[in-house]
Structure formats: structure tokens, C-alpha cells
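Notes to self after the call with IL:
- keep both proteins in one doc
- input above output, always
- annotate only the second one for now

Protein 1:
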Amino acid sequence: MYQHSSSGYDLVVVGAGHAGCEAALAAANMGRRVLLLTMNLDNVGLMPCNPSLGGPAKAHLIREIDALGGAMAKIADATLMQMRRLNTRKGPAVQALRAQIDRKLYQRKMKSVLETTPNLYLKEGTVTDLLIKGNRIGGVVIGNTKIKAKAVILATGTYLRSRIFIGEESFPSGPQGQHPAAALGNALEQWLPLVRFKTGTPARINLRSLDYSKMIKQPGNEFLQGFSFATKGLRIEQAPCWLTYTNAKTHQIVRDNLHRAALYTGAITGVGPRYCPSIESKVVEFPDRDRHQVFVEPEGWDTFEGYLSGLSSSLPADVQRELIRTVPGLEHAEIMRIGYAIEYDCLDPTLLNSYLQVKNYEGLFTAGQINGTSGYEEAAAQGLIAGINAALYLREEDLITIDRSQAYIGVLIDDLVIKGTREPYRLMTSHAEYRLNLRVDNADQRLTPLGYKLGLISEGRYREFEQKWEQIYKEIDRLEHYSIGSTKETNQILAEMGTASITHGFTLAELLRRPEIGYQDLGRLAELPELDPQVVEEVEIAIKYRGYLEKQSMAIDRFRKLEHRQLQGIDYAAVPGLSRQAREKLAQFKPMTLGQASRISGVTPADISVLLVYMEGKS
């Protein structure tokens, strides 16, 4: 069934969730021979929890994955049911796209892409152990079969020794009744220390059993914009979501049954996600809140199954049914699947370097929820970087890092490997110091040249990227050349425009032709061409936020001076003037750069100054 020789596969990717899919595609598209293993071919690209993608920071990741040549954005655009642009009243740094996805269609599309990608072999198989000799990975074990490879990526999701909890009941299981990876979890303890995390999911209901007159309709945006820069307009009839709220009766049922909730009986020992709490956690931790939001979300075009976002629970099935039917519009809800909590093993991500390679084992990479993250988008982003670096490792070329000033991907990985996490990690826009520069709209400007260099962006797409940005720079130069009013006047007018030119499909050229603007150079601008909305958006942002962008650019320059100073081969015990705590922390975490060292808890600015002096003395 499997090839055994060392020449059979260059890379084995374990797990075909969002991390594993992106990892396998990246490495295969970079010319490596890749085996992608999954326990069930019917669950490739599975969305075991919410049927949606995007939102603040998460949409940024999807755009960055696309800019580097990943698959998630294109497949999301091909399978979405609704698209909304969030935070439109706020600045461009925090604006984001969020889409409802047909989850089964997403799986089928992703599986098709994997099956038709050269160099990529998708197969069923449950990995039970790793082949490791000394400090180097040698492949994986499936039962009595050894599959040799020079690199392995573990993208095991929430399956390592996973256990489901529904009230007083618990049993070994992966998400949605799949088999847990018990043997691999037991085996990994030989090689790496594991920690226990927890997450959960709400009940699913039959959408035909709801009373929509008691809920608030949440339609998509009329102007449809895709996640992928390659998507040229979307024309679909969008499916609505619906908003309702819990109430005092709901909360009382929860309080009356906390003694039966697995989360509060002591049965669950793993740490849960802070930003996606269960309904019982919300009732306990926010006792003064008289209601909590519940979003009813469709799971696909050809099903009436719906997702109750906001009602994740570890309560018994009978209690879940009772509390759901206290929510307006859900009084007669037919429960199709009950909600549950799930506990699983993962790694301490500080065991990894910035390449997502395990520090103590050459050729062993990890990505996704095994690294302590939550969310499909965070998993896919890690998978892409792990796949790229595994391919570069196999080529014996320099591996890549993406720093915090370059992308949210860099923020995500840096937070994990330098700071670690004590709970399932969720990326947020507040984590990024340079978020005005790390916008959803300019991810291609920041990352597409790198994707092209790596061979993940086609020649045709790269030429389109170049033409787009040439036009953007041309229009910015045109406005600056004609000195259209003072900077103050220009910014005031553009501030009044807000995002109207994007939302309603106007172009900057049309707005500049308006007689009430009264520019002296209006006549010379009369021949401005009709512009693509993406071009308009970039020109508006460049003009409105010019001063802020220039300040952030200077801050990024200062950051990179530290970030790119390598710390390889330093004996911290021999550095005079370092505090004892700094010596211990630097030896433990082994930061790759001076910038990373500065973000380690316990390493002070004085310690960084000492290191800098020491390094300059050695150079």
C-alpha cells in the first residue's frame, strides 16, 4: 500500500486539516514529493466547528496566505454563502472580511485540489509513531509499516488522545465522532513534552424548525469582495444569518445545572479558549450580563443544518435542549447534533524555532492546533510556512522567517515560539504593533514578491500584481503632482468620503470630478481613467494616512535593525553584565535574533543593551 524506500517521499505530512493541506500543497508546489496522510479521506479540510472564515486578524491571515500562494482564500471564494465587510466605520487597519462557508463543498474542493496537484499523494493512514535517530527525523510508522522521509510535518489538530465531554458522559473521540489519535499521542511523549488544552462546539439545529420573525436578519454586503486577490468579482445569491439573544431564563437553567457541566465538575483538566467561551463560562464569568448574542448560521446550500454560534457547551444533552428552547426564535428548535467539549494534547510552542521546526529534532516541523492555536486560519497560516520551510530544508537552502512588521503570520508565529501560550491561542489585531501597515488590502504588496520567489505564485499572477501596483503608484503620483488643494483639504475631503467610494462602487476619479470639490486642477484631471476598486482603495489609504504610514515606516526600520541581528552560537554564560535571569531565559528559549530576545519575558532592555555591546565587540 505504501512505498517504503527513502526515495519514496521527501516529506510526510500527518493530518489533512487546514494546516496539513496548506503544508502539503506548498511543499509539493515547490517540487518536493509529498505524502499527505489522513485518518479519513472524507474529512479532508474539515470545519468541525463554525462554518465561517475570516474576521479581524483572521481575514488578514487568509489574505496573506493567498498573497504567498496558498489555497484557503481561493477555495473559500468558490464555496462561500455570504460575505460581509466588518468594522467599516473604523480605520483600514482593523477592517476585515468574514464569510459563511458551505463546509461540505469546501471539503470537496480542497480534496480535489490536493488530488490534482503534481508531487502530492493523499492517502488514508493512522500514524502511530515517529522514526527518529539521534536528533534527526527519519519518517513515520503506520502500524507495522515504516515510511521513510527526510522531513515530517505534524498537523494533527485536536486529535491527539482527544476526549469528548457531554455533561457527565465522556469518551475517547475526535471531532464529530472521528477516531482519536491515541497511539500517536502516547508515542510523542517519548520525544516531546505534551500539554492538555480544551475547546468545544455548540449544538446544530434544523433551520426549518425556527421562527425567524423573532430574530434579526444579518444579510451579506451588496458589494462582494473575495478573499483572494485573484478573485475578480463574486456574483452569488447570498444566504442570510440571524441574530438572537439568550435571556434570564436561559442563564438560570445554566446556573441550575453547573454541577452537571463537565467544565465545572473537574472532569476537564485542559485549559479552554479565552475568546470563545462556552455558554456556562459566560454565565459564570459575566453574572451582570442579562443576555448574550446567538448567531444562527447555515452550514451549506444543500442542507438545513444550522450552527448556533455563541452556545458552545459541555452541559448534558437534556440541559442543552432545554436552554436552547428558551432563546427567542428557537422555542421549537429541532436539535440535530448535540454540543460538546473536547480535550486534546498539544505541544508547548516554545519548543519550536521561527521556522516552525522542533528545536531538538532536525526535519521535524509542526503546524496548527498541535502548536496550541485555535482557529482554521491560524492553522492554515502555520501550515503554509511549515510546508515552505520543509521544502527549503529538503533542498538544503536557507529557511525563511516572516517578521512581525511584515505580516500577521509573523506576529502569530513570533507570539507562539517566543512567548508561548497557556491557552488556545487566538490571533487579534491588537497583537500587531504595526497594524496600519499590515492591512487586509495590501497583503499582496507585502508578500507576493516572496511567494513568487519561492515558486508559489505563477508568472501570470505576478505580472497582474505588478501592473496593479504600478497603477496605484501612478495615481498617487498624479494626485501629488497636481497638488490638489492642501494636504489638510485633501485629507478632510477623503475623510468625509470614508469607505463610500468602495462600498458603493464609485471611483476616486468620479469623486474628484464633483464640482463642489472645487479643485483648480479639476480640468486637467477630467481624463482620469476608470479605476479598479482595489486601486481606488489603496490610493485613498495612501493619501488619507500618509503621515501615519510614514511614522510607522520609520518605526519598522528601527525594529528591523534589532530583528535582523542574529544570535547564533552565543554562550550567554560568557556574556559579562547579563542578569542571571536573562542568561537562563536566553539559554532556554534560544532566540534566533536580538529582536526575539527583547520579547522574552525576564529579558530587560538593559540586558539587550549588554548583548548589543557584546555582539559589536565580537564583530
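Protein 2 (the one to annotate):
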Amino acid sequence: MHSPEEIDARLERILPVVQKPARYTGGELNQVVKAWEAVNTRVALVFPDIYDLGMSNLGWMILYDLLNRRPDTLAERAFSPADDMETAMRRAGVPLYSLETHHPLADFDILGFSLPYETLYTNTLNALDLAGIPLLASQRTTAHPLVIAGGHATFNPEPMHAFIDAFAIGEGEEVLGEIVNAFQEWKRSGASRHELLLRLSAIWGVYVPALYQAEYDPDGAVSRVERLVESAPLPVLKRIVPRLPPPVTRFIVPYLDTVHNRIPIEIMRGCTRGCRFCHAGMINRPVRERSVDEIVEALDQALQATGIEEVGLLSLSSSDYTHILELVQAVSTRFAGRHLNISLPSLRIESFSADLMDALHDSRRSGFTLAPEAATEHMREIINKPVSTDQLLETARAIFSRGWHHLKLYFMIGHPSETLEEVRAIVDVCRAVQAEGRKAIGRRAEVTAGVSTFIPKPHTPFQWAPCDTLDQIQAKQELLRRELRGPGLKLNWNPPETTLLEAWLSRGDRRMSEVILRAWQLGARFDAWNDFFRYDLWLQAFQETGLDPAFYTHRPRPLDEVFPWDHINPGLRKKFLAEDYRWSLAGKTRMDCRERCFACGILPTFADLRRHNPGEAWQCPEVKTRRIPLASLPGADLQIPVIP
């Protein structure tokens, strides 16, 4: 084993020869350092990407704060080293360590991996290997840390089932503390590691893959997932907090620039719009909002604790926050003269008002980002984003007329039933938006089109749809590169190969773990980074494991197919998702469910949320007839059938 002192001695030789050594030292303002021997349980929160990205992730910040508030627990951080640092660490025999005390990760009781997106999977294996911990959960003993994972990518945990001991499905604020409690009880008992897994499976929202097995039809599709022990819940219902806890305010201040150098305050969680492609919008239901006073007070504390002058008011749809105008005005009034840069990163065209633009006018920003997602009204109806082109142009006109000169538009290609003409319409819309800008401010008007490619994510109405093939994606991107050009116009796009990888990983079954392991063995790392991504290694891994990647991405699914993730319950009825998919094929839209409930299933499942949130701004008719108290949801005792 390596002591912190041994690691420090070797780091003195390593750090002067690697790029950005501040990534690896710790010691930043507001980090929490506790006496190692003074606590019962030691948790390492691991973000399997470089420090520059991981330090901008709000999820681990929340858990870091909550765990360190416990007197019996410490939480420390670890990130994936960049390639130069990894090479130096392996040569010098330095294991992956925590930033706070430089203890090896193998010394911790629990390792908690954040998996917000699927392209972190090989980095997760690499982190375990750097830490000297067996990659396969089946090979770990009581001498090894408990390896858990959470985040949006874990709503289909099956591709990583072989490597993770337990998944926290859903929101982590409460469940992580319960996992720590269960670990402490198990440790006192001296029982086997299998007994620990059984204890964890009894916690609402925890999925322990070793307690289940998958069976397959002759055509390769999953026929069913069954539990191996009677006490394991089936399905596993996502964890949810009935009321958002107080925001984090003592953010760690990095020594170097990170992706987002800002104070992130979550103003609202969940979304009621129902965009059919949007994984986050489905799995984060229902909506819960913080009050204006709570947000402003938290921001005041965070400014005092950090000195950072950029503020991110975060949610899936910030302009849908009920009191957004009041909030921006309150922030502007409270912090007048501080020259804050207020960022609203997720704005809806239909809820972005002139008053809100005026309220933001003193903020140090050059433009806005809007997400029409599709360029024709027909395609927007298919994806359930019924915004008219006139509405988009009117909003653009209002933005440019107030002096802002840059507008970024997010689009997505590859939507179900999309034609090349609908792709070409992206060019027409961007030029029309630029024309509105030039009328208002002349040639300074700039438009950037960010074009991603649709992936039919689990637990969305489009989970039955196929992905575009590589040739189809390339043809659409070539059309845009050829036609969307000129002064003041810019196009950004994702490499089609990375889209296919994300689709394979997000839609995979348990057999995908063999592909992930083999790809990592072949050298796959940092798959989210274009400079490091190796498409050929993934194709080789598929070939060597005998799996066809097209099976996961390029075939339409019958409505009665069992998905690899059907035993994970996000609170939405599969019957509702199937109905919404059929509506999309007919071009039918659903209005915002703040205005009308469509019985998706989330509020009946968590009906007691209304009692915990009496100030919510909307109602659900189903709640009146199907009340299930939140207190009756312990986890293992709750059985909610998967509706075919």
C-alpha cells in the first residue's frame, strides 16, 4: 500500500514535468479536509474525466457538501489524470489518489463515480485500474472499497453492470447518506460482502446488478430480467427528493480555468415540456422550484465564499421557472454595482420574454442561446416542440434589437422520419435569423448553429426509434457544411462516430460490458474527446466479442419489445411513452403539462410531493384519485409493474 507521504514524495518529481500540475495538487479555497482517523467512513467522489471538466459538475459538489456535513464521514475528490499525468503516474508507481489528503483510492471505504454521460465508461475502468482495484465487481472482496455509481447515464446501468457494485438510480441527496448508513451497519456486523449488497438493495433507488440476471430471445433481444433473490426489488424505482435541499454555497475555487468558472445555483429541477427526444426532461420529473428568496440568499453566501462574479441560474429550462423575471430583477437589485454576469443557459423560445431580455441587459454577455431543435414546424411537432418559425424570428428580432450581436441556435439532425429537405431548412432558418439581426444592428449580427445528432435514449418516447446510420449522418452534415457558410455564420457539429458510440452505450444490454472492457484493454480512453476517441478500437472490440453494433442502433423496435432498462423505473409508465411515440408518428403534440396532465405516471407515483410542496403552481388530476404517500416507498417493499 502507498501512504500519502510516499505519494507526495513521488509527486514532487512528477508534477514539474506535466501540463497543468494544479489539476493534481488539491489545496484550493473551500476544500474540506478532515482528520482521516477521526471519522468512521471515508468516501471518494470520482469524476472520471479531467479536473477542468469535473470541477464544473454541480452533482458531485452537492454530494461533497452533504457528506462532509456529517461528523462521521469525510468526502474527498478524484478525477481522471490527463494522458501525460497518467503515463507519469504509472511509471512512478503512483496510484490514483484523492486531492484533499493524497490517500490512494484503495484506502477509501466507498468510491462514488459520477456518470452524467456514457462516454465516461472506459475512463471509469481506467480509474479503477489506476487505483489498483479489480475491474470486475465479482472479483472484489471485503478488503476492497464499495464501488457505486450515479448520474443520468445510470438509468440504463446494464452496460456497466459487471464493474459497479451498486447504482444509485435518480437523485442522490438522500440516498447516498442511506448507503453510508448501510455500509456502517454492515461493517460493524462483520458480515460478508454479499450481505452488504443485500442491505444496499433494500434502499429505495439502489440497484445491485449481482442480484439480477438477464435472459435473451433467439434474435438477441432481452426476454426478461429476473431477480436472483426474492428481497431484491423489481423494478427498481428511481429515488427522488420531495423538496430540493438548500443550495451549495461554499464552492471550491479552482487554481486554474475550468469549463464553467461560475457559481451554479439550481433554481428548478424537472421539466414539463415533454420533448420526446429529451432524456433529462423525462427522468427528472416532476418539477420542483426553489423560492426567489432562497436563491438570492444562497447566491449572496456563495459570492462571499468564492469571489466568483459569474452566476449560472440552472435548470433544464430556466425561462420556465415560474418567477424567472422576479428572480433576475431581485439578483440585479441585490447585487447592483457588482457587475455580475448572469447566465441562463437553458432558454425556451416560447417563454423567453422581452421583459426578461431587458432585465438581463446589464449582464456582461454578448448574446443568447436558443434551442429550436428542428428547423421546420412539421418536425417540431414530431419531437413535441411546437414552436412556430415566426415565433423564433420574433424572439431573434427582439434579442438583436436590444444590442446583442450573437445568437447561437441548437439543432438536432436524425429525428425520426426526417428528410434531407428538413435538414436543409436549418440553413434557411439560420439565414433568416441572421437577416433579422442585420436589420437591427447591421453586419455585426452573428449566428452559430450547433448541430448534434439524435440518439433514441432510454425512458423517452423515442426509445423505439432507430438511429441514423453513419452514411446518413455524414450526408446530412456534408449538406450543412456545404450550404451553411458565409460572413457571420458558423456551424458546429459532432463527429458521427461519437454519436454512434454514445448510442451503443446508452442502448446496450449486459453483453455490452464485454465490449467496454475489451475497448479499454485495446486502449480506449477519453471517448468524449475528439482528440482521443478511437472509433476503430470500438469496432474491433465489437468484432472480438461477437456482437453486432447495428443491433443496438439501426433497427426499429416493436412496441412490445423488452428493453434492457425496463427493470429500472423512472416513474413514467411505459404505456404513456408508447402512446406518445404513436402520437409523434401522427404529428400530434402535447401541451405543457403545467396546463394539462397527460397521466405520465410520475405524480401518482410520488403523490405526496404535493404535500411537501404546497406552493407548486400546477395540479395533476390523477393525484386526487391515486394517492401513494411518499412514506410508503421504502424500496424493496414497493412493486410497480413494468407495463408492456
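Annotation: Residues 612-644 have pLDDT under 50 and may be disordered. The radius of gyration is 24 Å.
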